[in-house]
Structures are given as structure tokens and as C-alpha cells.
Amino acid sequence: MHADLHRGNLLFTDGELTGVIDWGCAAAGDPAGDLMTAWLFLDERGRAQFRRELTEFDDATWVRARGWALELSVLALARRGDSNSFVAGIARHTLAQLLAG
């Protein structure tokens, strides 16, 4: 489990994902922790495709992933507010995506 898999921790080369960084919270655990990237990084269309591709996860896992995304976003804004505009942007994007469905 990565615990905060969002665009700030993803490396791209020529538009292709080539790496993941920031493993400070890496641990074996609930796969929903990694699925929360569906809200941290993607829009509604991307999230639908992501879920179609990951058929091995049940509805309960996706519900927990929403919870992980909500927790990370609320804590980021509560702890940092707008002092880190990059992190605040991710948190605000995530909250908007969670509210969108």
C-alpha cells in the first residue's frame, strides 16, 4: 500500500507512467488504500475506466477506497490549509471528485 498515490508522487516520461516515488507510508494492507488514486488523480471518466480494468476488487473495497481518499484530503487541508498549494490542489480535486460521485 502506498497511502498517497497522487500526481505529485507519479513520474511520467513522454506522457507515460514510468515511476512512483514517496514510499514513506508503504505497508502491506488494505488494497483500497491504493485504489483511492481513482479520486486523487483521475476524473469521472478516468475513474470509470480504472474500475473497469480492476475487476478483482469488490464494491466494498471501492467504498473503502473512497473513505481513504476522503480522509487523506480532509487531513491535508486541516493540517496544511493552503500553505502548500500543490497538496491543497490535490485535496480540493479529490473532494470535488468524491462529491461528483
UniProtKB/TrEMBL annotation:
It comes from the Bacteria. GO terms for molecular function: transferase activity. SUPFAM superfamilies: Protein kinase-like (PK-like) (SSF56112). Keywords: Transferase. InterPro entries: Aminoglycoside_PTrfase (IPR002575), Kinase-like_dom_sf (IPR011009). The keyword Transferase applies. Residues 1-68 form the Aminoglycoside phosphotransferase domain. This is Phosphotransferase enzyme family protein. It comes from Lentzea albidocapillata.
